[in-house]
Amino acid sequence: MLKKTLTTLAVSMALTTSVQAAQVSEDVIKQSFFPYANGAPQMKGVSTGMVIDQTNVDSVKDALDPAMYRFIKNGDYTIKVAETTDFALHQSYIDATRKYAGDTSLGAEAGAIHGSTAGRPFPQEPAMDDPRAGEKLAFNYKYGYNWGDSASIYPFYWKYRDMNSGKVERTVKMNFHFLNLTHRTQQEPFPAITPNPSNLFRGIYVQVLEPFDVKNTQLLIQRFEDDLKRDNAYLYLGFQRRVRRLSTGQVTDAFLGSDVMIEDFEGYNGRISDMNWSYKGTKTMLLPMYNHNDMELDTETHKDDEGYQVVKFGGAGGCFPDITWQLRKVYVVESNPVDPNHPISKREHYMDAQTFTIPRNITYDRKGDMWKSWLIGQTHPDHHLPINKGTGVSVDDAFSMVDIQANHCTTGQFKGIVDPKLTPPSKMTVQNLRASGR
Amino acid sequence: MTKKITALNTLAIGVAAGLTMSYGSTVSAGDIEWSGFVENATYFRDQKGLSKFRNTAQAEFTKPIESDGWSNVSINGVLRGSYDGVYDLNSSEFGKDAQQQYLGESWHANNTASSSAVLNPGVAFPCDNNPALCKNLDGYMDQDENDAKFAEFNDRLDFIREFYITADKQLANGDVFNFSFGKQQVVWGKTDLFRVLDVINPVDYSRHNIYDELEDIRIPQWMFTAEWRMGPTEVLDDSNFQLIWNVDKFRPHNLGTCGQSYVMVDAGCFFASSIQGGGPYVINDVEEYDWDLKNTQFGAKWEGVYGDTTFSLNALHFRQQLPSIHALGPPGDNFGLFDIHFPRVTLLGGSIDYYSMNMDAVWRLEVAYTEGEEQPRDTNGFKETDMLRYVIGFDKNLVIPSLGTRSAFLISTQLFGEHILDHEVDMPMDEDNWIATALFKGWYKNNRLSPQVILAHDFAAKATAIAPSISWTPDNHWMFNAGLNVKFGGDETFPWSATGGTAGGGQTEPLARFLNGPIGVANQEDELQFTVRYSF
Predict the structure, then answer these.
(1) pTM (2 decimals)?
(2) Could you confirm whether domain B2-535 is CATH 2.40.30.160?
(3) Closest CA to B467 of B43, B50, B9
């Protein structure tokens, strides 16, 4: 795997340096996109193939975030460790970083950014003495290659579970669609889809398929390129057959009664300017990243003609994905809401340095007590659906949001598809809500 | 008439089925997706006992079809059947054997205001009890008890609530043309409880007055719709133009037949009344509008999104869905006092939603100007007048930690206004009136436990409805709901003047029921309501 990475890096360097003068050094690109080019990370006590449970978790405590340590210590979950693998992002995204990152800078106001047309805005290593390092990492996440230029979760199963009894209270089946209208690098047109009169950056469209009482509920979130402008959010309720504007107070609400806020989607789904970001350091930690096709899968929840099966869940209450974890280079970032009435006091984000996905989050309530634990498993696209092979997308594949205080969780099982045909721009219009409703 | 209606339905179903088959013969078809529910709604009314024991089965289907030339092709349907056992279980209060002591018994006492009453109480289900009156009412308010028991099984095939085909055509410039035909609901506007722009489908108020979801009480119509979805343009974030052609035979609102448990503004009993002393019936005849091309209804809507604002401009040429009563002059033998008409009207209107970032709230404004409506008068029959209706709405989601949940409560308020442009003093309706509504809804236990309170206040009627309820959804299939529906006010009574009235105006019986409105006239319909539903 590492040999392949080095080859890719060498080829990309040769191609790009001949086209233009690099504004960001190749060392920076290499460090940012290929952190394991010189070898996989190591940590004392952690080895490939080991199983971490409550008997040995203390010996590897530094490799775990506090919430996951607590779960394992309680006997709620065990972790299987696999080798570190290279989640190389798509070459077009790396090239865009080379092209544009040198011109990118933060504005005077928090949430303001200039010159970020596409690619990773700030590929440089964060510095502890940079007071805005956390904000830069947040922008790297916002303009990351998470789901690429467009993708769908088609379908997506959310299960609401009582963590004590393991009872599945509700199963909600949905389709999710993501589309970047700007910052595009791989799917034509790039870097932007036009016309785009309000200069939208991204659209997220959700359509509920089951159960009957929430069937045809649809959600459309339009995020502006201007981070200082609040999202536009629209909700279509099947039983009303009407599109209603949402006040964004609802983005911190339990989405469809789950343990997940709209703001929690993908690790963080809001404006950068809604939070104060601080960089807490770089660590080597275990993250839930794996090859989907190598996992033991759930044979019951989803069946289709392709034979695709979703990730299996187990552990306490069925709240934890049955997947392997691997040692990764991780940026620890903290975000505190600007709004004093926000229902949380802070989130700790554990960002994967190579992909800038956020596989782990810990949310603290307003009193400062640990409230929720977010886990989103990432599969390598080459070990998932055939259509995803070569897309360079770290595919979201299984999530778990545990409400630690309520002993309740919501789990998500994905069929993630990176196919622009499933998410045309018309999907992200208000009219699509009416047209797709009854 | 029945044969004509049946023939029209047969023709419409035939066209829809023909379209379906023509697709079916050339394209591959996906699986049919089915869903639906069975439900029991049991309501108890103060002083009356059981007021509803409705048992419903509803099935919905979608059949996607793949086509080379068209996309998103599907056939969609909603089938519904119900049986309301209240007419068998509480037949002394509701049904063909129900009797009233005086007209207006359902909403006011028999006091001095009615001491000189000139009208008999309404006849329950005239078509079961009074063939002559039934004949006068032919075509409107002429349900018999079985029609009320089995609300969907009638000449208009209401058990087929929806059945339509829809298809998209991708245009070369990226725009989408959508076409749909069949029995369907088309929803304009954004209001709850009361309607301003959402007027394409008539409404069945006999089901539960104004309180059921409009989704369940709109009366679907056979319609063609065509949409040109332009998507984003250089100026607008979204733009869409819609044409509607309602080819169904005209149907007015169903206000409830005298003898049913919900008779909107007591109109059904007024229409089933007669002059005391063997005088004529109140209603002489109901004007019918046979199916004819010139009797069809049509409209257009342009809507779009501009920044933080969504807007629509609407136009509709249709028939007034509330009855207009035309006085016939001095009564004679076998002669009624009024004919019922449904005049042709033209609506022009629009709506705007605006998201206020500072307030983190949404404002809604909806306006409709209708030309050609008719309003009743106490002393001079009726008058044609233009009407202005509008609503201002405010929606906010707010987390209120002190209420013990981290989920946001929905706070939604609306103020409806109605202005009669050519008002006369002897019209029962005020020149201006307003109705305010408020919804306060919260969620607990992962949204499975949801309490809510609905408030509505009619300023002219000085009447208020309060409807607290709580629903429990233990899993994907079951839902239990318990609620109260209590009304206050609407107590004012009025002198009689069915054939004359006070010169110079003032509200009078029997038309004052229109002033007292749907809340005031239901002031004795306080109910305890239970619903259980199993969905699949």
Answers:
(1) 0.88
(2) no
(3) B43
